[in-house]
Amino acid sequence: MNKNIELKKYFGQEEKLPEIVREQISEEIILYAYSDLNNSFHFSGSWIVVTETRFYLVHGKSLKLEKDFAINKISRVIERKSSNGFRLKILTADDLPPLLEVYYTGKQKVMMGKIKFLLEKKVKGENLAFDINPDKEYHSNALSTIIEVQSETSVDDKGTLLRLLSYLAPYKRKLIIGTIGAAVSTLVSLLPAYFSGKIIDDLVKPYQDGVLPVETALKSGWVIMAALGATFVIREIFSWMRLNQMSILGEGVARDLRVELYAHLQSLDMDFFSKKQTGSIISRVSSDTDRVWDFIAFGVVEVGIALITLLSLSAVLITMDYRLGLIMSVPVPLLLFSIYKHGEKMKSVFLKCWRKWANLTNVLSDTIPGMQVVKAFNQHDREIKRFNGINDVVTDQFEEVHQIWTRFWPGLMLSIHLIVLTVWCFALPRLFESGESQLSAGTFVSFLLYMTMFTAPIEIIGQMARMLNRALSSAHRIFEILDSRAKIVNKSEALRPSELEGRIEFRETTFSYDGIRPILKGINFNIEPGEMIGLVGSSGGGKSTITKLISRFYDAQGGSILIDGEPIENYDVGWLRENIGMVLQEPFLFHGTIWENIAYGLPDISKDKIIEAARVANAHEFIMRFQDSYETIIGERGHTLSGGERQRISIARAILHDPKILILDEATSAVDTETERKIQDALDKLVKGRTVLAVAHRLSTLRQADRIFVINKGEVAEVGPHEELLKNEQGHYFKLHNMQKEMNKNFAL
Amino acid sequence: MFKEQANGQLYFKGKEVTLHPCFPSQDRMSCISILDDDQNEVFFLKSLNELEVEQQEIVVKHLYIEELGHEITKILEIVEEIELRKFLVETRSGIATFYMRSEEWPNKVRDDHFQFLDIHGDIFYIKELLSLDTKSQKRVSPFIN
Ligand SMILES: Nc1ncnc2c1ncn2[C@@H]1O[C@H](COP(=O)(O)OP(=O)(O)OP(=O)(O)O)[C@@H](O)[C@H]1O
Ligand SMILES: [Mg+2]
Fold it and tell me: What region holds the DUF1854 domain (chain B) (predicted)?
């Protein structure tokens, strides 16, 4: 959690419980929360604080204690939602009014949920299984939603920009060449106008005045022409230098960012991926890095060139003739400002366009995958009408955009022309004057040419703000991922023994995904190498969680997990996972051929090993029925296969890796009996010589198991072989077994 | 049938219940599912008219029909932040800040009535756009027109 994100900035709420409140409470504070509504749902504030034995309500402004009572008076805590907010009702006896009602907005809901949880535990006479830090809880829970949508890093544009520029460091040479290219080509661009003036003042005029003979004039003229030609060539050579070096450099930076991002993503915990949307992560690696490329390759330089051009133009003009120069340069800031204003206006109109455009694409992404439904219900006329309606709305909105910009740019050009005209007006009389203030025809021509060069840079600078904003937000989104840190990392001397035996031990293991609601409440068991263990129990009991802890996708908060007698944290994470095979309930296959999927992670494995594994998994038969056998391409996520087929491929994958510990999470759910039998056979072959943990809802799957663990509400409720568990007629297992027998009987009818 | 207990909880035939309208924002008054503590439906109320007046009053009170969210009376500021849009508003219940995702927009409920759903689930609304002052209208216009 980053401390820089301020509650005050986001919600206007204190960063933590004020000291004055703490001083009024003698006991240690376990948790506290902020209630931001009063009982008529008006925005206000008060603090609620829970200690070991008491509950306090403190006024948010005066920080005076308003109410406090002993927690043992509480009988129940209820949360109710309405449109204006939430209310937490703290009840005592049924025939008495509530002890207290607390009102709050959704911002406080997560924290209040924890308060409610804590109070409920206390009502039951229990305590939290682990220590928590009330300040940290309060801060991170209030901001959890913002952090989820936004970022973990604080928003600091300058920092982000500097950091982005630091990626240029490995490309110093290219950067220097590119910058020189840009600078030279810009400065050289100023020469042609100068030469034109020279021709008139130094050659044409003296010749017309009869001072210069025609031969000399022509000769000098050709020299100047040659110089002019040379400038053009030089300019384009340097311009090539700049474009070439900068676009390659930009590509390099984008590549570096992608490499770093992807590698970093691989190192992050499952926790990170369950919080972020896949689409958002993908767009950071793809389109955000592309935007950064655009900005570095062109944006930075274009703007730089535009600034250099404007400044040098003004300088040249003012030195050539300070009066005319000033007339031309002084209004420039004004023009820039009007462009900025225009940009702001366009921003808000573009926002409307974007919104309406999104509607249009939504219709598409809705109906095209759902075409079958559209056809089945014969709704194409309705869909066409809907699409056309939205299309018209979009078109109207874009028309507004075009109205605005088509009006603005000619207007801007007109102002520039007016400035030019003003320059003309001042210049014209001076062309015919004599003495000090006389203006030479050559200077005037140079001036005219220079003035045409003013528009382009102004335009580019006008777009700078938008470009910078886009690039910064992309950079920020990229850095956000780079700044997320994995919690599960190897110790400095991580163990990589040559072999894993497969002994697993849980000792008083406690675990919670969110740090408050316990999922595993002190689990104890011992699994010997080679044992097959069945995990059964009601849904949400924590079976999958146990398997995730064994492969260390998460770390337990309390107690310990030992693998071969050694704490799990001491092993190298990669080594551990190599030795643990997992067949997940929703097996994930990648786009590619069947054999690539089976051989995932073992590129050098021999073909016959793959086939053997497929045979063991009972997959060989159906694979051979495909046109391209093992080379059949299975679509994204293996969607061209049936659920049972996918499962068998992933079993084959697990077999091929020959893991010492095998975890099967509902490997036989959602398939027909025939397929179940086949998978079953595959599993029977598979379990030999390994430690196996199989999660199953159908108890019949577990007939092979040496022992069965019944997991109920985060605890191991029963342990033993099938027959033994059945002897306890009060037990969960007995009930489960009977229920399933009943069901089977009904189906048999 | 319905009864309010001294502790403020709603009871139906002696069982503590909660009311869950099937269409919470469109029509709170009909199609109400009455759930007990374990979220089992104990009764389904198609229309309030099925009840006696006295009973209706109790139900209406627990449906919170009078609440539609916080009514916005003035839009003070709209700020674009990374991935978020921050709204600083004045409401009938005081000054408030709320956030929407950058790619989410207010809902047009009726002609002139707009609903803003904050990322935390809080509801804000503009009852009549045209009754807001011009500055507020101008500020909010890109997001609703
Ligand atoms: N990533 C997660 N973040 C937060 N809570 C989670 C997460 N995964 C699971 N849970 C919660 O943990 C509890 C235990 O989940 P788990 O998947 O271990 O159950 P299970 O015993 O495997 O259930 P089932 O038989 O339905 O698969 C559930 O209440 C679930 O809501
Ligand atoms: Mg599970």
Answer: 20-140
Residues comprising chain A, all counted: 749
Atom of ligand 1 nearest to the CA of A545: 18
With CB atoms and an 8 Å threshold, state whether A95 touches B5: yes
Q: What 3-state DSSP class applies to A302?
A: helix
Percent of residues, chain A, with pLDDT higher than 90: 12
Which pTM was predicted? 0.64
Tell which B residues from 56 to 115 touch A, by Cβ distance under 8 Å: 64, 67-70, 81-84, 91, 93-97, 99, 101, 103, 105
Q: How would you list the strands of the sheet with A504-511, edge to edge?
A: A520-527, A504-511, A558-563, A566-567
Compute the half-sphere exposure of residue B138: CA atoms within 13 Å on the CB side of its CA.
4
What single DSSP character describes residue A571? B
Q: Which two tokens stand for residue B27?
A: 């029509």
Q: How many domains are contained in chain A?
A: 4
A83 touches chain B (CB under 8 A): yes
Q: How far is it, in rounded angstroms, from Cα A707 to Cα A721?
A: 4
End-to-end distance of chain A based on CA atoms, in angstroms? Answer: 58
Q: Please indicate whether, in this complex, the C-beta atoms of A83 and B68 are within 8 angstroms of each other.
A: yes
Nearest CA to A380 out of A369, A392, A372, A389 is that of A372
Domain boundary among B44, B68, B92: B68
Ligand 1 atom nearest A546 alpha carbon = 18
- From the list B5, B7, B120, the residue facing A105 with the nearest CB is B120
Extract the tokens encoding A33: 């929360």
Q: Judge whether A592 lies within some domain.
A: no
Out of A107, A155, A352, closest to residue B145 by CB:
A352
Mutate to test the pocket of ligand 1, among A272, A514, A543, A547 (most ligand atoms within 8 A of CB): A543
Residue B22 near residue B15 (C-beta atoms within 8 A): no
> Parallel, antiparallel, or unpaired for β B41-47 and B27-36?
antiparallel
User: B64 and B74 in one domain?
Assistant: no
Asked if the structure places residue A531 within a domain, the reply is yes
This model of the complex carries an ipTM of 0.86
A64-93: per-residue pLDDT in tens?
Answer: 999 999 999 999 898 887 778 888 989 988
Q: How far is A41 from chain B (nearest CA, A)?
A: 7
Q: Contact at 8 Å (CB) between A301 and A424?
A: no
Same-domain check for residues A222 and A286: yes
Q: Write out residues 498-557 of A within 8 Å (CB-CB) of B.
A: none
